[in-house]
Design goal:
10 strands; five-stranded antiparallel sheet; 4 helices; alpha+beta
Length: 136
């Protein structure tokens, strides 16, 4: 079976695992997926992750984070899609922060020339990129 949007598939697996209160979820490996999961870890949305190999295929095991039995991840939205890419510049990042367009504690993840970064990291480095997903 061919998956047309592997990032959306990964986010859906995480979302569904949180709904049934699983402690971990296993996802097929790719560099971009590992970058997104690493950004989630840096932001404190997951407790840890590990990359492992089984029968000549790589996987990522994501350990989900709960506080008082409530998931830390409230919502995940896929922004840029294969059919409609969504890019953002540094100027747009600053405008959204200034006018409060996005939810208060939402963070979006960008694919940049410096790797996969959160909004704050991209703003610190002074670059924009493709807006992959929003998490809060």
């Amino acid at each position: 079976m061919t998956i047309s949007d592997p990032i959306a598939d990964m986010l859906t697996k995480i979302r569904n695992s949180i709904l049934i209160k699983k402690k971990e979820v296993v996802i097929g490996y790719s560099k971009i997926k590992e970058g997104i999961i690493d950004a989630f870890l840096r932001l404190g949305f997951i407790s840890n992750y590990e990359v492992f190999e089984e029968t000549n295929r790589k996987y990522i095991k994501v350990f989900l984070k709960y506080v008082n039995r409530k998931p830390v991840i409230e919502k995940i939205i896929r922004n840029s899609k294969p059919s409609c890419r969504e890019y953002t510049s540094l100027l747009e990042i600053k405008k959204k922060k200034a006018y409060g367009i996005e939810p208060q504690h939402a963070v979006f993840i960008l694919s940049t020339s410096k790797g996969v970064l959160s909004k704050a990291e991209a703003q610190e480095k002074g670059i924009g990129g493709e807006k992959l997903c929003t998490i809060w």
